[in-house]
Amino acid sequence: MANRNQNQASKTNAQEVRQQNASSQGQGSFGTEFASETNAQEVRQQNSQSQANKGQGNQ
């Protein structure tokens, strides 16, 4: 059964996907939205504190 789908044509329209990708350029995406809301320094500090607490046996 592993070879069953190998000879079937893809049902994805590659040209349509390219057009959708091109039209989405420049529009906000989740990746940039969430990245802009993340304070990297604060995350590092929290991670450091968490590691210190684990060393003391406190979680």
From TrEMBL:
**Source species taxonomy:** Bacteria, Bacillati, Bacillota, Bacilli, Bacillales
Its family remark reads: Belongs to the gamma-type SASP family.
Give the region (Disordered) as residue ranges.
Answer: 1-59
Q: Which organism is it from?
A: Bacillus suaedaesalsae
Q: Where is the composition biased (Polar residues)?
A: 1-27, 35-59
**A Pfam family it matches:** SASP_gamma
Q: What is this protein called?
A: Small, acid-soluble spore protein gamma-type
Q: Which superkingdom heads the taxonomic lineage of this protein's source?
A: Bacteria
Q: Which residues cross the membrane?
A: none
Checking InterPro entries in the record gives: Spore_gamma
Its keywords, alphabetically, are: Repeat, Sporulation
